[in-house]
Amino acid sequence: MKRNLASFSLGSIIKKLNRIHVQINLENKTPFPKPRLFWLSEYNYQRRYIKIHPDGRIVGGLSRFVSSLIDFSFIRSIVAHKYCLTGFAYDPITLFMLELFRYLEKYPDMKTFVDVIRDPFKGKHYRLYAGVSDSSIPCEATFTNFKDRLGEPLYNAIFHTLVHIADLLGFLSFKILATDGTLFPTNARYKGCAYFCKECEFIEFKGIISNVRQRILYRLSDPARIVIGKEIRVRADCPSPKFPSDVKRPRVEVLTLCLQEANPDTPSIFNQIFGLKEELQKAGLDLIVKRGVITHIALNGRAVTDSFFFRCPKLPADTDARIGVRRNPQNPDQRQKIFGFNSITDTSIELELGLEILSEA
Predict the structure, then answer these.
(1) H or E segment to which residue 161 belongs
(2) Is 79 left (phi over 0), alpha (psi -120 to 50) or beta?
(3) Which of 43, 42, 37 is nearest to 86 (CA)?
(4) What is the 8-class DSSP label of residue 39?
(5) Given strand 285-291, what is the order of strands in its sheet?
(6) Are the C-beta atoms of residues 50 and 65 closer than 8 Å to each other?
(7) Which residues make Cβ contacts (< 8 Å) with residue 146, sequence separation at least 6?
(8) Average pLDDT over every residue of 314-329
(9) Where are the domains of the chain?
(10) 237-265 per-position pLDDT tens digit
(11) pLDDT tens, position by position, 51-109
(12) What is the pLDDT of residues 204-213, one digit of tens each?
């Protein structure tokens, strides 16, 4: 059954949006904590005249069209808990809208778009729609910090609200859904183990105090065994269950120690942690940690029952990225590895409206 396309005229959509904006604002009522005194920008929703040519061209482009129809004030409520009362910050709506404009206008990267924003004439309408003054234009790092502050879940929550608005407008029938997985390449090299899992953040080593203590006492018992600066490596079994059956699971170097000449003014804290304070003091040595990230310590009053938790040194810094495989663009008969981000998207295809609306990401 075909839908009545008259309900999707610009006038009908504007009437529906008046009610939808009220509903969205009632669903997001958390006050934004930062006083306006500390805002570097301030977005204010303003409905502007929209003109669409018979051939479908929109005067002012998609940025004017979207910013004129949708009130983005709900974003402040969604991200309110990420902001405090003090310190200067850009209005989160400003940064989100500028990022959205970049995608709508198909700029290749943020550096190019920031140059356009700074242009007195080309960027004038972007600054106007997003609430940016000429004296406080954000730089590339501002958008990176904004994404880090919000994190992926909050960013997705904003997009899901926009999808919800499209659904309330009746754009989404979900009669035709297209699911696609795309690996977006990056310019960075992949460094780290490809078989990591959540357990790699907390590799447990029970009785490490007793283990290290015995190894140090063994060296102290014979001065010939003491080599200043020589590494003492502590290894644990890799916890990842993702290794293929034909690949031997490795032992992970979770902690690297060494002995050095003692500094009377600043003795090493690890002398006491591993119960070697008196022995090392007599030998005029300090125990120091050269490598290793301790994430948690659980002590039960006895060294033999202690549990130290370590972060695997081979865990990639960017755990959202993956290594995938694609056809070599230069030689289609060969495959090549690619490092990037895998995105799974669901798109609602509305043939009657001639639209493809991303419903999930």
Answers:
(1) helix 140-168
(2) alpha
(3) 37
(4) B
(5) 232-237, 251-261, 285-291
(6) yes
(7) 90, 92, 95, 96
(8) 79
(9) 5-171, 198-311
(10) 999 988 888 888 889 999 999 999 998 88
(11) 877 877 888 888 998 899 999 999 999 999 999 888 899 999 999 999 999 988 889 88
(12) 998 889 999 9
Q: Which residue has the tokens 């529906």?
A: 16
List % helix, strand, coil for the chain (3-state, nearest 5). 40, 20, 40
Strands 335-350 and 355-360 turn out to be antiparallel
Distance CA 298, CA 53 (A): 69
Give this prediction's pTM.
0.61
Per-residue pLDDT, 2: 56
Beta-carbon neighbour count of residue 265 at 10 Å? 5
* pLDDT(358) > 70: no
The rounded Cα 307 to chain-centroid distance in angstroms is: 30
Shortest CA distance to 166 belongs to which of 37, 4, 348, 328?
A: 348
